Amino acid sequence: MTMSPYKGKTGVRRLINAFGYSLSGLRSAFRHEDAFRQEVLLAAVLIPTALVLPVAATARAVLLGSVFLVLIVELLNTAVEAVVDRVSLEDHELAKRAKDIGSAAVMLSLACMAVIWAAILIGRPAEHLSWKVQPDVIETSPGCPILVSRAAYRAPAPPADDAAHRGRNGNLPP
Question: Which domain holds residue 153?
């Protein structure tokens, strides 16, 4: 078995080569895959939207992660399809199964993204848990305030006469 001429590189040269291969893969997927181009267009809308939405940093990270997950799964699906087509263009049950499974993975990642965006934007499940987004104003320099939102959890207050909810010192929690 012959060794790949690309496997001998180490250090910074290997990192530079890997970065070049990654860019080549992105260009190839964008050039040859309609679905990837459509998902990149969707990402071009959703990523800036996630960055400007008034949501907590954690919610923003989940929104962005769900968008990148779709792109990652589409790239993997594209790679599987390319390998299957390279092996044979004949109709074969295993080739169909591999392509269908890759397609299902993309569909599930899109559904996951839709549920995440709906839950954060529409469902607002945090409100059901007594989460409140409170804006804070931070003065970085005189006359230049920055608005920052942070989520603060407030547990529902226990009944005042219920001794079971009192702490060790007999006081109710804040």
Answer: 131-165
Contact 110, 70 (CB under 8 A): yes
- Claim to verify: residue 144 and residue 118 sit in the same structural domain: no
Q: Which of 33, 39, 74, 81 does the annotation list as catalytic?
A: 74
Considering the domain architecture, whether residues 93 and 161 belong to the same structural domain is answered as no
Active site residue 74: yes
Among the listed residues 26, 23, 45, 50, the one whose alpha carbon sits nearest the alpha carbon of residue 36: 26
Q: Along the chain (174 residues), what's the average pLDDT of each consecutive run of 10 residues?
A: 69 90 94 96 96 92 97 96 90 92 96 94 59 53 53 54 58 59
Q: Give the CA distances from residue 7 to residues 12, 14, 143, in Å, rounded to whole numbers and listed in that order.
A: 13, 9, 57
Quote the pTM value.
Answer: 0.66
